[in-house]
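We store chain and fold; thus.
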Amino acid sequence: ENLRRFRQADEGGYNHTWALFNLAEAKLALGKGAEAETLFGQASELGRGRWGANDVRFKTLARYISQARAAASK
């Protein structure tokens, strides 16, 4: 429901991007790795497209995605 609201109010924006990331983390915690990877990919695409690959916001997002993946593999 929250993701739907972000799509309506903030399509592709900062909050939408981070909502995708947060949902992906939750999916990882539930053992739904494939779903999490899809969401991580969507968040990454939005961030790169909106901010650019060299922007600190995108780099932060990419770092958090890497950390979440590493933590889930332990």
Summary: The mean pLDDT is 89. The chain is about 80% helix and 0% strand.
